[in-house]
Amino acid sequence: MHIHWFPGHMAKAQRMIREQLSLIDVVIELLDARIPVSSANPVITELVGTKPRVVALNKSDLAEPARTAEWLQHFRGRGFTTALLDAASGKGSKELVNRVEAEAGEKLARLMAKGIKGRAVRAMILGIPNVGKSSLINRLLGTATAKTGDKPGVTRGQQWLKVGKNLELLDTPGVLWPRMDDQEVAFKLAVTGAIKDDIYDMEKVILKLLCILREQYANRLCERYKLSEAGLPAEAGELLTLIGTKRGCLKVGGIVDHDKVRRIILTDFRAGKLGQFTLDHPDQLTAD
């Protein structure tokens, strides 16, 4: 599909992160639970270095629970403190705060030894666009202070936000890496909404998604779009047309509006109406 996207403001975001890291006690890396590896920006790992980090799997309500459990075990096995979140509903937010504060315990103890007492933990939230950073901040603050949206790239600047008495958060824009040579990763970022829909070939992305659904989750397709599993077309393009016909997405003359059908399928997938999905599997990882 040859998806490449690296807007100028993301290069600026990297510079801002580097400039602020010296002020930070703990980094919160927010990942999409549906794609924990594909949403893990290698640039973030390079930027953060040895800084204490909490890996938080967000959108857990949209991911397969058994796979999420495997991913939590994977990250813990690599020495990371982890948290499981559904920022949209607030589930897991308090546990995340507790783990961030615990991660900063050693740093605060050193400050107390120097006579600096009562300083709040300073944390930075990092993640790719549209992973749910603003939704998480809003839940932590209990108000819609941070602007949110259903498209990547809403957050542009930086702001310090006070959470209770013991935590200060530095919000940052979503950061994608300069090149996406792995087109499997690019596909997963596109289909989950991390990349703007207008910069990739939606037809190819949806056809690939339909192939996956047809092969692995045929029952979900049939249930959602009132199809017969025995009569599912093997070819993704024909399946797209069939779904469009069933949904009544027709132009003048009875021609299927393929663009409308593609957007319906994409919206259904992202909203969980086709069920829970985890597109990254731990057993696919190669040994480091």
How does this model look, in words?
This protein is an alpha/beta fold and 288 residues long. It has two domains: 164 residues, P-loop containing nucleotide triphosphate hydrolases (Rossmann fold), CATH 3.40.50; 81 residues, Conserved Hypothetical Protein Ylqf, Chain: A, domain 2 (Orthogonal Bundle). Helices cover 42% and strands 11% of the residues. The chain contains eleven helices and six strands. The longest helix is centred in the C-terminal third of the chain and has 15 residues. The radius of gyration is 21 Å and the shape is elongated. It is found in: Cytoplasm.
What's the shape? elongated
At the fourth level of CATH, the homologous superfamily of the largest domain is: P-loop containing nucleotide triphosphate hydrolases
CATH architecture classification name of the largest domain: 3-Layer(aba) Sandwich
**Radius of gyration over alpha carbons?**
21 Å
Taken in chain order, the helices and strands follow as: HEHEHEHHEHEEHHHHH
Number of helices: 11
Class of secondary structure makeup: alpha/beta
Layout of strands and helices, then pairs:
Layout (H helix, E strand, L loop, with lengths): L7 H13 L5 E7 L9 H7 L4 E6 L6 H13 L3 E4 L8 H11 L1 H9 L7 E6 L6 H9 L17 E5 L3 E5 L11 H10 L9 H15 L1 H8 L10 H12 L10 H13 L18
Parallel strand pairs: 1-2, 1-4, 2-3, 4-6
Antiparallel strand pairs: 5-6
Helix pairs in contact: 8-10, 10-11
GO molecular function: GTP binding; GTPase activity
Subcellular location: Cytoplasm
Protein name: Ribosome biogenesis GTPase A
